[in-house]
């Protein structure tokens, strides 16, 4: 795996694949630790970093994705441990909306159903 992805290009790939669906899903992005976190309805669903585009998926969808060539558990660097929540989408899917849209929708559907985290009181 090469750690040379551009988070801004990954954001554009998500926006292209989702098109107007992004508005319906209340899609927004926030800078995080040199990358970008993508949210749906206030819940994180995608990590965009130099490692690639990683999606939070149900355990079943995660296992299905990991069967695909070049799909891997997210690691922000080679020495980091593998994420149990986020899975890297194959790089060949980044510019293929027909491949990317279904897995994005699975992630959005899964994450939309998760409870919102409460903000700590000040």
CATH arch. level architecture: Alpha-Beta Complex
Q: What is the average of the pLDDT values?
A: 92
Number of separate domains: 1
Characterize the quaternary organization of these chains: single chain
Largest sheet: 6 strands, antiparallel
CATH topology: Aspartate Aminotransferase, domain 1
Arrangement of strands in the largest sheet: 1-2-3-4-6-5
Shape: globular
* N to C succession of SSEs: HHEEEEHEEH
First CA to last CA: what distance?
A: 41 Å
| Unreliable segments of 5+ consecutive residues | none
The number of strands is 6
* CATH class bucket: Alpha Beta
CA-atom Rg in angstroms: 14 Å
Please describe what this structure looks like.
- This protein has helices at 7-18, 21-24, 59-66, 97-112; strands spanning 27-32, 35-40, 43-49, 52-56, 72-73, 86-88.
- β2 and β3 (43-49) form a beta hairpin.
- The model has no long low-confidence stretch (mean pLDDT 92).
- With 122 residues, it is α+β, with helices and mostly antiparallel strands.
- α1 (7-18) crosses α4 (97-112).
- The longest helix has 16 residues, at 97-112.
- It has a six-stranded antiparallel beta sheet.
- The chain has one domain (7-112): Aspartate Aminotransferase, domain 1 (Alpha-Beta Complex), CATH 3.90.1150.
